[in-house]
Structure formats: C-alpha cells, structure tokens
Amino acid sequence: MKYYIVDVFAEEKYAGNQLAVVPDAQSLSTDQMQRITREFNFSETTFITGQPGGDGSYPVRIFTPAEEVPFAGHPTVGTAWVIRNLLRTDEPSSVTLDLEVGSIPVAFADDGAATMTTRAPEFGNQLPPASVIDVLGLAADAVDTRFPIQVVSTGLPTLIVPLKTLRAAQAIRVSEEKVVALARTTDIGKTMLTFCPETVGPDAQLHVRVFCPLVNIPEDPATGSANSCLAGYLVHHRYFQSDTIDIRVEQGIELGRPSQLHLKAGRTADRIRIQVGGRVQFIADGHLH
Predict the structure, then answer these.
(1) HEC-encoded secondary structure of the chain
(2) Rounded Cα distance, 182 and 36, in Å
(3) For 13-23, how does the pLDDT look when each residue is reduced to its tens digit (9 = 90+)?
(4) Residue ranges per domain, the chain?
(5) Which CATH number fits domain 2-116+279-287: 3.10.310.10, 3.60.21.10, 3.40.50.150, 3.20.20.300?
(6) What is the tens place of the pLDDT at every residue in 47-79?
(7) pLDDT score for 55
C-alpha cells in the first residue's frame, strides 16, 4: 500500500509540519488506520478512503496518534496537494476534501501555494487569565488583557491566548497535568494557540505556538486548523483595528521546524470568511507491507 510524506506550511524541505498520506485506503479498518498513524508518529496521518463522489470531493479521514479528528488544517492542505500533484495528471486549480466537518476546498496558485477555505468560526467561552497562566508557566503580566482568552472553532475547537511579547511566548512551559485538570472543569477545546505581535523573522506579523497535550502532541510545528481559528479571532476582535486581515504568521521555530502560514479573513454581512495557505514540500514515498 503506497504512502507519501510531505512537509506542510514549509518554505523549504525538512521544515513545517510532517504529514503521511495513504491513498487507496478503503480496505483499512479504523483500528488499522489508527495503528498506522501511531507507526508514522507524525501529528497527523490522512487516509483517502475512496474515489471522488458525485460532487468531485475526495473522502478523507484524519488521525492523530491518539484519535481520529473531524478536521485539521495541515492534513487538509497537504492531502489536497498530494492528490493534485502526485495522484492526478491534470493538475486541477482546486481539490475538495470530504471531511467529517464537511467539504473543504483547497485552491492552488500559479506558484504552487495551496490555500484552504475553512468553515466560518464559532466563538465559545472566555477564560480568565489566571486560569491559563499557571497552565503555561507564565508570569501574571504575560497575557495581553486587551483581548480575551477564548475558545474558537472552525471544526476543531482551539483556545486562543494573546500574549504581549516574544519573550513570554518563548518562555512557555506547558504543564500537561494542569491542562488535563483545567479541561475537566472548563471547555478549552483540543488545542491551545498562543500568539504575540513580536516575531523572530521579518516576513511575519505574528509569532504563534500551538500545544495539543490532550491528543498526545506536546507542541505542533504548523497548525492550519488552529490558525484558522486565530484568523477568525483577529477579525472578530479587530486585533489589527480592521474587519479584514492579510498576514503571515511564523510557527515551529522553537521546535527547529520553522513554518509560515498565510492568513486571510474578512467579515461579510453574516459571517467571517477564512483562508489559510502555504507551501508544501514533497519529501518521500514508499510502501506499507
């Protein structure tokens, strides 16, 4: 059974977020998919479970080493890239995936960059800074209290935490025990995203870190789903004093896998439209035996 490995949201090879894609996976059971995912041990592995449906979308399932998830960003972008560039010969301008959360289209620019359009964001509960500071191992004044700590979802709920400085972001030491304890009493989603307006590189406007201890991923180097939630959050709370954003964020630097994601979002009459894009690098292919 063939598989492909790509790096997603990576400006060069061996950066960004690793993804394994298994096409022709319709004969695999859920248990087999979970065990194969643990074998790769990337943050996610995807399985294409059939040919395109009547609407042209490809049925895809996404697994972390701990469990199946209804949506994740870098697996969506990376799987669509594999379909377009490695499985098809006509190089279509877009590929749509049929995920548990619904159909997610991924468009391709002339330079090869891939951009997904996500579901509109849903805004959940807000948490007091005191409940999160201890979890992140930060000082009391690290949080930018002009903006809320809030759960946002475009398919996979994420807790968004605004920080003041890059120094605070780099000082984070997540306590898995305290995350689990907080999750028992409060809805905090599956992932935690911290961001600040100071960056390491000159090409980004925000520095981002994403932690997923509840699904056995201590830290993720590039997270499309969480960043789509961030894009909705930035527009909803007018972080840049605008109803639209067109920015780049850096992630994964602390892990030695620098990533760059392009976030575009804007408010229309009744919803916020979100797009998350970046580059994909082809790393390897092989066979499962």
Answers:
(1) CEEEEEEECCCCCCCCEEEEEECCCCCCCHHHHHHHHHHHCCCEEEEECCCCCCCCCEEEEEECCCCEECCCHHHHHHHHHHHHHHHCCCCCCEEEEEECCEEEEEEECCCCCEEEECCCCEEEEEECHHHHHHHHCCCCCCECCCCCEEEEECCCCEEEEEECCHHHHHCCCCCHHHHHHHHHHCCCCCEEEEEECCCCCCCCCEEEEEEEHHHCEEEECCCHHHHHHHHHHHHHCCCCCCCEEEEEEEECHHHCCCEEEEEEEEECCCCEEEEEEECEEEEEEEECC
(2) 31
(3) 999 999 999 99
(4) 2-116+279-287, 122-277
(5) 3.10.310.10
(6) 999 999 888 899 999 999 999 999 999 999 999
(7) 85
Residue 118 has pLDDT above 90, yes or no: yes
Second-level CATH architecture of 122-277: Roll (3.10)
Q: What's the rounded mean pLDDT across residues 214-224?
A: 92
Following CA atoms 257, 76, 163, 236 in sequence, which dihedral angle do they give, to the nearest 10 degrees? 160
User: Once rounded to an integer, what is the mean pLDDT over residues 258-262?
Assistant: 98
| Residue 2, Cβ density class (10 Å: 0-12 exposed, 13-18 middle, ≥19 buried) | middle
∠ CA 4-24-43 to the nearest 5 degrees?
45
- What pLDDT is attached to residue 98? 96
* pTM tops 0.90: yes
Q: Are 194 and 226 in contact (CB under 8 A)?
A: no
The answer to whether 2-116+279-287 and 122-277 have equal CATH topology is yes
